[in-house]
Structure formats: C-alpha cells, structure tokens
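Usage

Read records sequentially. Each one opens with the input sequence:
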Amino acid sequence: MALIGGCDDVCGRNLNCCAGLGSDKKRTWKLTIMKTSLGAKTLVYPTPVFVVGTFDKTGRPNVMTASWGGICCSQPPCVAVSLRKATYTYGNILERKAFTISIPSEDHVKEADYFGLVSGRNLDKFAAAKLTPVKSDVVDAPYVREFPLIVECKLAHVIELGLHTQFVGEVVDVKADEEVLASGGLVDIGKVRPLAFTPDTQEYYGIGRRIGPAFLIGEGI
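and closes with the structure output:
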C-alpha cells in the first residue's frame, strides 16, 4: 500500500504545501493499493463463447467460435462480433448479410472449442462434431439445434478496426429451448449454463452463483 501524492485540499500538490495549515484546513490523506500495469492487452473478464453460424456461397452451413463480441445497442437490438479476414465466416457474412449466434452450454464445451480450432473451408464442422444445422426461418444463416439459446441477426454494419472487422447484427429473433425458460418466458441462465472464456489464460469457465438483483442491490449504499 502507498500514499498517493497530494492532499485533498485546494492546492492538490503534496504534503509540504499543507504543512503550515491548521487542522481545519488540512484534508485527510487517501490510502490506496497500487496496481500492477499489464500493458495494452485484449483483457476483459469474462468474454462470451459465441458460435457464429453462416452459410457459404454454395449454401453449405458453417460455424466458428468467437469471443470478441457482445450486445452493442438496445434499440434497435444489436449484437456485434469481431472476426479476422482470414476466417471463412468473414466472407460468408459479407456474402449472405446475416449470421446467427448459438450459445453453447457446458455440455458442449468440446464442440464449441473444436469449432474454433479448424477452418470450415474444406471441412463440414457440423458432421465432424455430430451436431445439427438448422436453417433460420428469419435470416439467411444456420444455427446449432443442440445449443439452448439462439440469436438470429441481419447484418447492419461492417466496421474495419484493424486486425479484426466488427460485424454488427440487428437482432431479428431470439430462440430458446423450453427447458431453459423460467416463468414468464424469461431465460434462466442457470439452466442455459453458458460458457465464459478468459482471454489471458485461455480457459473456459461456467457461470458462478447468483449475487443479487441488478438495479436494486445498489440501493443499499
């Protein structure tokens, strides 16, 4: 632990500047814990495990796993996923103007990992993983039938960022297995059991215990 330079007074410089002031003019020093710099990294905890579904130009279904993504707009509802140009999915999205995001449960961690290990250019990933492609009824893309939660998107924006290109998809529909729904038609995350990915250690985790209600627990401060 260390003191950070400067007293909480109008001078805001250092201890000596307040040495001649009376106790009524001085301010309390702040005690803080110094943090270790890790440098500029792609490090946010956690990142999602998205399985992005597309059709290629011949109509063959393909999937790939991606973690650089998330919700990016509420109205219209949009999600974004960032991909390298080298991926087969990159060209498929530009070709078909659509993609899906299938959320795998912990039961399918092996399949989700596999989808990120191999390219779909010369390989049928669905057949290899023994999973079932389903053509979306609202966008021109397939999703994984065995995965419990599906987000179907039409391509809205393409943003060149650098090594990655961000694809923003406007959500047309969300589909969920009945088994993962709670009362009122809400999704129960404890039943979905989605995966989380740690970018630095490159590991998969399940979700933890429930902490409390959002937009309410903070009222206790």
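Summary fields computed downstream for this record:
- Residues 1-21 have pLDDT under 50 and may be disordered.
- The longest strand covers residues 164-176.
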